[in-house]
Amino acid sequence: PSGGRPANAQARGLGLGEQRAGQTFGSGVLGQVAGLEPGDDDLVELCRLDGAEAVYGAFERVEAPLAELVLRRAPEAIALVGVGIGFLAAMGTLAGAVAGDAVQLVLPGLPQMPLRLVAAPLTAVISAMVATVAACVLVYAVGYMRSDPERPRFFGIVLLFVAAMQALVLAGDWITVLAAWELIGFSSYLLIGFWHGRDGVPSAATRAFLYTRSADLGLYLGIFVLIGWAGTSEASATLAITGTPALVAGLLLLVGAMGKSAQVPLQDWLQRAMAGPTPVSALLHSATLVAAGAI
Questions:
Q1: Could you tell me which residues come within 8 angstroms of residue 275 by beta carbon, excluding any fewer than 6 positions away?
Q2: Which of 186, 188, 182 is nearest to 168 (CA)?
Q3: How far is CA 144 from CA 72, 77, 148, 201, in A?
Q4: What is the pLDDT of residues 112-154, one digit of tens each?
Q5: What contacts 184, CB < 8 A, 6 or more positions away?
Q6: Three-state SS string across 65-130, please?
Q7: First to last CA, the chain
Q8: What digits encode the pLDDT tens for the residues 67-77?
Q9: In the chain, what is the greatest distance between 2 CA atoms, to the nearest angstrom?
Q10: What DSSP string describes 140-160?
Q11: Which of 43, 81, 138, 144 is deepest in the core (most CB within 10 A)?
Q12: How far is CA 247 from CA 74, 171, 223, 241, 253, in A?
């Protein structure tokens, strides 16, 4: 009497065509990605929906598994595309700065303290350097990390590091500098401690973090002096400060830069950074973080 319909489909009032649709969908690529079998009750029920609701329901079932599948199978491709876009943007910014075009982006921030990104000639050059080094690092890391099961996490942290570096070198106000500075310290900690299951790696990451954080106190105090004296967080406006406040702020900023650039006597953390993967310890920290901090 069921006419070829399974008992569960008949009990739920499903037609033979709807049940066959569920069979067809379940045997397709989307059904396999979502982990569904032909004739699955959920699929058959899905086929009862009308028009757009059916399409929406299908994508809702496969969206999360499909995204996870892409991130797990192709993190290298995502990272290379991202760093490639960043490289092209940095080169375009550099070309504009060389041609004399002033590029500035103003975003809402604290009251009377907007966030600024400014591409002056010097910052455009450093931005291009960061983008070039990041591209080389990621190309090398594709082969170096190919057998590591946690490579999606690695590439995600590296992209966070690169984004924070770009924000730091292009920052046109001290609030953005602080935000980017903190993101750099956080991502560096994660990268150095990437293989946290190995002996000595967690302590190396913690030591590097504490060294740089201690030096960051000088950066904070220097910025407070500059903003308090100039009455604005805009970096270009604070350059007009002279005399004792300028000397004090400059020395305090130097302490922060020495910590990030691993200058004596705050160089110990850079040796500990070698506990991380080679693309991190030998290339990212040495070629971008140290150089940018010194400049």
A1: 192, 193, 195, 198, 200, 201, 204, 205, 281
A2: 182
A3: 17, 15, 9, 19
A4: 788 888 888 888 888 898 899 889 889 999 888 888 888 888 9
A5: 161, 164, 165, 168, 260, 289
A6: HHHHHHHHHCHHHHHHHHHHHHHHHHHHHHHHHHCCCCEEEEEEEECCEEEEEEECHHHHHHHHHH
A7: 83
A8: 555 566 678 88
A9: 98
A10: HHHHHTTT-TTHHHHHHHHHH
A11: 43
A12: 50, 22, 12, 9, 10
Cα within 13 Å of Cα(202), Cβ side: 4
Which pLDDT belongs to residue 30? 42
Which tokens sit at 71? 């991130």
Under DSSP, the state recorded for 198 is: S
Query: Given this model, what pLDDT does residue 120 score?
Result: 84
Triad 203, 207, 211: Cα angle to 5° = 175
3-state SS, residue 163: helix
* CA dihedral sign of residues 261, 230, 125, 192: positive
In angstroms, the Cα distances linking 207 to 31, 129, 147, 188, 189 are: 48, 28, 28, 12, 9
Q: Output the pLDDT for position 121.
A: 85
Enumerate residue ranges in the chain where pLDDT < 70: 1-73, 282-295
pLDDT of residue 5: 44
For helices 174-192 and 201-230, the axis angle rounded to 10 degrees is 180
Cα 231-235-239 angle, rounded to 5 deg = 80
Distance CA 278, CA 216 (A): 26
- Give the pLDDT confidence score for residue 119 in this predicted structure: 86
Residue 237, Cβ density class (10 Å: 0-12 exposed, 13-18 middle, ≥19 buried):
middle
